[in-house]
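Weekly structure sync, notes
Attendees: PL (lead), two postdocs, one rotation student
Agenda item 3: pending single-chain targets
PL asked that the sequence for the first pending target be pasted directly into the notes so everyone works from the same version. It is reproduced below exactly as submitted, 319 residues in total.
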Amino acid sequence: MKLKLIPSDTKIPFLKYRFMTFGASALLILLSVFMFFGPGLNKGIDFEGGIMIEVGFEKAPDLADMRSALGGLGLGSVSLQTFGASDDILIRVQRQDGDNEAQKVAVDTVKARLQADYGDSVSYRRIEFVGPTVSGELVKTAVEAVLVSVFAILIYIWLRFEWHYSIGAIAALVHDVILTIGMFAITGLEFNVASVAAILTIVGYSINDTVVVYDRIRENFRRYKKMDVSDLLNLSINETLSRTVITSLTTLLALIALFVFGGEVIRGFAAAMIFGVVVGTYSSIFVAAPILLQMGLKHYNEADDAFKPTGDDAYENES
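Predicted structure, written out during the meeting:
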């Protein structure tokens, strides 16, 4: 027996609720923008610059005591977190004023305090420093990567479909990107290079889901030449609903496993992806498709800029 989470003959009137979902999306976008410019993102060392020290212990130390000891060294912001096992600690220290020598002094200060408190049980597995020039370049490159990917998708959808569809797809992508960044601002999860990779992955996932829905809409426009546009869009979404839900759930199963068992290094990436898959699925159904109706999409025989199928692509008039 085939696994069917969603019946194949659903008739959910998605377009009926479009103004409610548009309003909900607008409120979430405003909240995300407010949080971004208000509290802001918890930028990691990748973007802010600083010192990162991975330390191993023979037995798990008390993080509260260690945080108190390192916080009193006068080095500014110091954060600690377990890095995989409980005896593997990642220490982050804010960038120190001055050149590389000042950063080395800060590292030596941390080492001296750990040596005094834990003796020879301490082993240093990794020490990294990200300077302001590198972090600035990373910010610039991250923004460029997101903008270029969105622009490339705009051109692709425009050529593959029509301009209505490219605008709808970009609206859905911007919706997903803004809400994902807002999630980082609201939750305080560290925003680093892995987070940018997650956003780019979400963009790819979301556009793939949107294209599936758009393909079915295009097919149905050719097949049902007299059906009301609102009914046709509802039909198309319902016909692809089972595929959309099953794809999203199987992706979420893998991401949840990464979030739970992947450790601290990959947890932020997995959290962003989980949120992005949910939001991307939502936007494909409630943003990308309904926005076509608001933009006045019509049957090809009712407007100059719509479809004119020929040859093997043309369907018989079934409605």
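Discussion points:
- Confidence is low (pLDDT under 50) at residues 301-319.
- The first strand starts at residue 42 and ends at 43.
Action: rotation student to compare against the earlier draft before next sync.
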